[in-house]
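Anyone up for a design puzzle?
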């Protein structure tokens, strides 16, 4: 699904969907459990580690799910997030992000939001597709550095929410997607808070919104 005048960048295509978690696998069961508890409406409870489950596996399944959600949410507004509308990757006037992945791009580069998000989502996809980092087979152990990998992924995915809220919320409202965005973001925040996965300083661009979402549930 292309937009006229877009070429070459990922935004000219719909974001590629994340590999689905294979049906019948334990991770699939966990995902189903997560969906069922989400349906209860109690997000604080929905993010808790199910009894007897492996923390790494729970974090892995949810990280894949958040990647999918953000993929879809950003996919709805890609036509409004362009080189000209968003020449830098920002979350309001005080926060600007420069891209580096530590391997191909070691020195952080300043780039437009669509370019940054393209780099970011491709980078996350590569991590999720790496069986040594995110093993999909039962019994294959998670690597020792899994938690730090997951934290970096979630920290970066947060930036896409932050950009959407700060720069494109009017488009989200026009598309009547705000309830979808808010629910997804609230689930994400409760999840990272439950397991202390993102540093508070990193969450600063959406601090007020986070406070508001949390206060309704106390």
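Challenge accepted. My sequence:
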């Amino acid at each position: 699904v292309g937009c006229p005048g877009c070429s070459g960048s990922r935004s000219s295509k719909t974001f590629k969907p994340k590999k689905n978690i294979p049906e019948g696998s334990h991770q699939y069961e966990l995902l189903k459990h997560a969906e069922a508890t989400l349906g209860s409406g109690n997000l604080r409870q929905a993010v808790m580690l199910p009894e007897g489950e492996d923390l790494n596996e729970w974090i892995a399944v949810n990280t894949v799910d958040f990647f999918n959600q953000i993929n879809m949410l950003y996919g709805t507004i890609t036509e409004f997030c362009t080189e000209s509308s968003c020449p830098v990757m920002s979350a309001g006037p005080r926060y600007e992000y420069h891209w580096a992945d530590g391997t191909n791009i070691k020195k952080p580069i300043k780039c437009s939001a669509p370019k940054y998000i393209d780099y970011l989502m491709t980078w996350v996809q590569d991590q999720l597709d790496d069986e040594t980092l995110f093993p999909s087979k039962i019994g294959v152990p998670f690597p020792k550095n899994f938690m730090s990998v997951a934290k970096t992924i979630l920290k970066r995915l947060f930036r896409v929410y932050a950009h959407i809220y700060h720069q494109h919320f009017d488009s989200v409202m026009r598309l009547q997607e705000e309830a979808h965005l808010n629910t997804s973001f609230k689930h994400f925040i409760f999840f990272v808070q439950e397991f202390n996965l993102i540093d508070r300083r990193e969450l600063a661009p959406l601090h007020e919104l986070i406070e508001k979402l949390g206060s309704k549930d106390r």
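A detail worth pointing out: Residues 27 and 120 are 24 Å apart (CA to CA).
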